[in-house]
Amino acid sequence: MKFTSSDESRIIEMAWEDRTPFEAIQLQYNLSEKEVIEFMRKKLKGSSFKLWRKRVSSRKTKHAMLRSDKVVRAYCPTQYKQR
């Protein structure tokens, strides 16, 4: 898939965010978890990719099905930054 640099930046940001599940990335950018992993592998330096994989592998919040039922919002109020 071809993305603008702005889209690429946003996908990377969403992937790094602890509370943004892979399903949200799929909904907005049509990338499965596997595709997000491949995308991150291509876009990040090797050491950054390894750090990211270690980080998201231990996060229940990266998968909607594993999240607490108490999380009902789609995004954090501060997620979309004003420029």
Fold and architecture overview:
The chain is mainly α and 83 residues long. It has a domain at 5-58. It is built from 4 helices and no strands. Helix 1 runs antiparallel to helix 2 (22-29). The longest helix is centred in the first third of the chain and has 12 residues, at 5-16. The model has no long low-confidence stretch (mean pLDDT 83). It comes from Paraphotobacterium marinum. It holds the Pfam family DUF2805. This is TIGR03643 family protein.
Instruction: Output the radius of gyration.
Output: 13 Å
Gap from first CA to last CA: 27 Å
Low-confidence stretches: none
Overall 3D shape: globular
Q: What is the helix fraction of residues, given as a range?
A: 40-55%
Quick overview:
The protein has 83 residues and is mainly alpha-helical. It is built from 4 helices and no strands. The protein has a domain of 54 residues.
Secondary structure topology:
Elements: H1 5-16, H2 22-29, H3 33-43, H4 46-57
Helix pairs in contact: 1-2
Describe this protein with a few key phrases:
52% helix, TIGR03643 family protein, CHP03643, mainly alpha, 0% strand, 83 residues
